[in-house]
């Protein structure tokens, strides 16, 4: 399917609206060529691009070339899917590097309020030594503060 053939299908559709299924199929074929056979999200991109074009069909300016308009939609969808894939990969990497906390959000908030900056640094992923260095206190003092906080929280239930 070439750019010119896609425009021809559009012209035929404009003259005979019963040919919508042919234009839709031409759009799918053209989009598949733009996306490429090796793209793992090929089917989703083609479906999304075709759907977007079909739902926004009435927004196509009369002086605009249909194939150029549709090409732009497909390219934008490809870009969107690459961004999603990159974000998904970064989120998975972050989840591996920073595993979930064993504490609920309410417990973390309570510990932050009661434990002050030391606990806040620990919950943000710093080691005890790093947190102590940031607060300019000894590691022993930091351990004592944590022991006191732990006893206080255990006594409150």
Compact overview of the structure:
InterPro entries: RNA_pol_sigma-70-like, RNA_pol_sigma70_r2, RNA_pol_sigma_r2, Sig_transdc_resp-reg_C-effctor. By secondary structure, the protein is mainly alpha-helical.
Order of helices and strands: HHHHHHH
**Model regions low in confidence, pLDDT < 50 over at least 5 residues:** none
Report the portion of residues in β strands.
under 5%
Total domains, how many? Answer: 2
CATH superfamily of the largest domain: RNA polymerase sigma factor, region 2, helix turn helix motif
Number of strands: 0
The CATH topology name of the largest domain reads Rna Polymerase Sigma Factor, Chain: A
Distance between the termini: 69 Å
Number of helices: 7
Class per helix and strand makeup: mainly alpha
Radius of gyration from the alpha-carbon trace, in angstroms: 29 Å
SSE diagram, text form:
Layout: H1 3-15, H2 20-35, H3 42-55, H4 66-97, H5 105-123, H6 128-135, H7 139-156
Helix pairs in contact: 1-2, 2-3, 2-4, 3-4, 5-6, 5-7, 6-7
Explain this structure.
The chain has 157 residues and is mostly helical. The protein folds into 2 domains: 3-96, Rna Polymerase Sigma Factor, Chain: A; 105-156, no CATH class. The chain is built from 7 helices and no strands. The chain has helices spanning 3-15, 20-35, 42-55, 66-97, 105-123, 128-135, 139-156. The chain starts with a helix and ends with a helix.
């Amino acid at each position: 399917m070439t750019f010119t053939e896609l425009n021809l299908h559009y012209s035929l559709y404009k003259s005979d609206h019963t040919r919508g299924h042919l234009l839709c199929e031409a759009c799918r074929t053209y989009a598949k060529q733009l996306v490429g056979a090796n793209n793992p999200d090929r089917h989703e991109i083609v479906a999304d691009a075709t759907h977007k074009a079909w739902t926004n069909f009435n927004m196509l300016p009369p002086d605009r070339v249909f194939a150029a308009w549709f090409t732009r939609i497909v390219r934008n969808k490809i870009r969107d899917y690459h961004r999603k894939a990159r974000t998904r990969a970064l989120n998975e990497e972050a989840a591996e590097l920073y595993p979930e906390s064993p504490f609920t959000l309410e417990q973390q908030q309570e510990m932050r309020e009661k434990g002050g900056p030391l606990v806040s640094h620990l919950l943000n992923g710093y080691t005890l030594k790093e947190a102590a260095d940031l607060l300019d206190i000894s590691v022993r003092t930091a351990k004592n503060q944590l022991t006191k906080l732990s006893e206080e929280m255990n006594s409150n239930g």
